[in-house]
Amino acid sequence: MNIDIADTEDRTTELIALARLVAFAIESAKSLDAEVVEFCLDKALRAVLDQIAEPARVTLTASDITLMNRSPLC
Q1: Cα distance between residue 19 and residue 23, in whole Å
Q2: What pLDDT sits at residue 62?
Q3: What does the alpha-carbon distance between residue 10 and residue 52 come to, in Å, rounded to a whole number?
Q4: Burial of 36 (0-12, 13-18, 19+ CB in 10 A)
Q5: Helices (H), 32-60
Q6: pLDDT tens digits, residue range 15-71?
Q7: Which of the 8 DSSP states describes residue 34?
Q8: What is the reported pLDDT for 1?
Q9: What is the Cα Rg of the chain in Å?
Q10: How far apart are CA 2 and CA 26, in angstroms?
Q11: Angstrom distance (rounded) from CA 66 to CA 5
Q12: With contact defined as beta carbons under 8 Å apart, do 25 and 41 qualify?
């Protein structure tokens, strides 16, 4: 049973890290004025955030919450 909990925590940690990476890429795309790239990355960010389990959301930082509340481009 501990293995399942550890696997879930690892998955959540990796998903949050992936969300941060995609959010950074979105900001880079904005600075490059690459609208299509920004749009696609925004979709990817939404998909990653949707994969983070509800109980794990209590571990999100203020920056993570800002990502989740970011207004979609479409």
Answers
A1: 6
A2: 66
A3: 11
A4: exposed
A5: 35-51
A6: 988 988 898 899 899 999 999 999 999 999 889 888 887 776 666 666 666 666 665
A7: -
A8: 45
A9: 14
A10: 36
A11: 27
A12: yes
> In terms of Cα–Cα distance, which of 41, 42, 43, 53 is closest to 15?
53
Non-local CB neighbours of 56 within 8 Å, separated by 6+ positions: 8, 9, 12
- Tokens 């571990």: give the residue: 59
Q: Tokens 């800002």, residue?
A: 66
Rounded to 5 degrees, φ, ψ at 71 are: -75, 135
Contacts of 22 (CB under 8 A, 6+ apart): 41, 44, 45, 48
Q: Six-digit token pair at 1?
A: 């049973």
